[in-house]
Predict the 3D structure of the following.
Amino acid sequence: MHEQETEQVRRQRYEALIGPLRTDLFRYAFWLGRDRGLAEDVVQEAMLRAWRSLDDLQDRSAAKQWLLTIVRREHARHFERKRLEMTDIDDLSPADQRKLADSHSADVEDLRRAIFRLDDNYREPLVLQVLMGYSTGEIAKMMNIEQGAVLTRLYRARKKLRSEFQKSHRKRRAI
């Protein structure tokens, strides 16, 4: 009976840790892969890995970063195993589009498209900083790169977004 109690306590600890973060994990996985089904699969696999490794997490305050790292690694593993066709931003359902931004203004649509066109090396740190609120130091740890590299990638991502956004404005004004 003692083993069952221990298992029940472990399940409760897991749910208390994972439950509040599920939405963030899904949002992050969706931004990484641009595909709802893929994001669901990645999060499910990440949650399974988190369950198996739960005893390795020593600092509960680091749980979100730990889980996002698992999601990122699981996303990479998925593409190591097989290459999937990516979903075009224009093909997203209205339900998926709501997850990306609440506003349907032309500016938001232009910005969303520009973010999805960014190379993964630029999009990932940008999403971690802007959507998830991580510092450059935390992003560097999660991505296993130097903080200077994170700063460079963020600078380049913003520069590319600014350029894309200005192009789309010029096109819209010309119409």
